[in-house]
């Protein structure tokens, strides 16, 4: 008995366009039309052909390999803020060292203050330049 009820419902659903399959997105093409004049006996009508847009006709630009930027001045900042500032400027090749010469590791960067940097802040350098931040613990 159930089959007899399901078959008409399926046919009704198919007739209404209900389907489990997703519908493809509709594509709309818009063309500009120009007012046309009636051709004379010696004229022929030529429809305009679309021309490629200027963006499509330009060749892709190669990626820049040697980009440069101004190295931020970070002496006097806590070490974490100095690293964040360097990365915001595009410098990611960062190294660090204990400026006291004790060879300690900078575990908690917020407890350290930058006392010198190489290259110096304000100079222009390639973004792949190695930046050395020399820091000491705050209060030393």
Tell me what you see in this structure.
This protein has 140 residues and is α+β, with helices and mostly antiparallel strands. It has a domain at 68-137: 2-Layer Sandwich (Trypsin Inhibitor V, Chain A). Helices cover 21% and strands 18% of the residues. The protein has a three-stranded mixed sheet, with helices on one face. Strands 1-4 form a two-stranded antiparallel ribbon. The chain starts with a helix and ends with a strand.
Short overview:
With 140 residues, this protein is an alpha+beta fold. 21% of the residues lie in helices and 18% in strands. The chain has a domain at 68-137: Trypsin Inhibitor V, Chain A (2-Layer Sandwich).
Name the structural class.
alpha+beta
* Mean pLDDT across all amino acids: 77
Tally the beta strands. Answer: 5
Amino- and carboxy-terminal Cα gap: 89 Å
| CATH fold-level topology of one domain | Trypsin Inhibitor V, Chain A
Rounded Rg: 34 Å
CATH architecture of one domain: 2-Layer Sandwich
Which descriptors would you attach to this protein?
5 strands; Trypsin Inhibitor V, Chain A; 140 residues; elongated; two-stranded antiparallel sheet; alpha+beta
How are the secondary structure elements laid out?
Layout: H1 2-16, H2 54-57, E1 68-70, H3 79-88, E2 94-98, E3 112-118, E4 124-126, E5 131-137
Parallel strand pairs: 2-5
Antiparallel strand pairs: 1-4, 3-5
């Amino acid at each position: 008995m159930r089959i007899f009820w399901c078959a008409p419902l399926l046919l009704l659903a198919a007739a209404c366009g209900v389907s489990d399959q997703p519908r493809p997105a509709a594509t709309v093409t818009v063309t500009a039309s120009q007012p046309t004049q009636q051709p004379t006996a010696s004229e022929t009508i030529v429809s305009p052909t679309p021309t490629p847009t200027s963006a499509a006709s330009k060749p892709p630009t190669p990626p820049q390999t040697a980009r440069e930027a101004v190295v931020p001045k970070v002496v006097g900042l806590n070490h974490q803020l100095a690293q964040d500032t360097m990365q915001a400027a595009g410098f990611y090749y960062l190294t660090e060292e204990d400026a006291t010469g004790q060879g300690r590791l900078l575990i908690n960067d917020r407890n350290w203050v930058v006392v010198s940097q190489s290259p110096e802040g304000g100079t222009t350098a390639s973004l792949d330049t190695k930046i050395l931040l020399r820091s000491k613990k705050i209060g030393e």
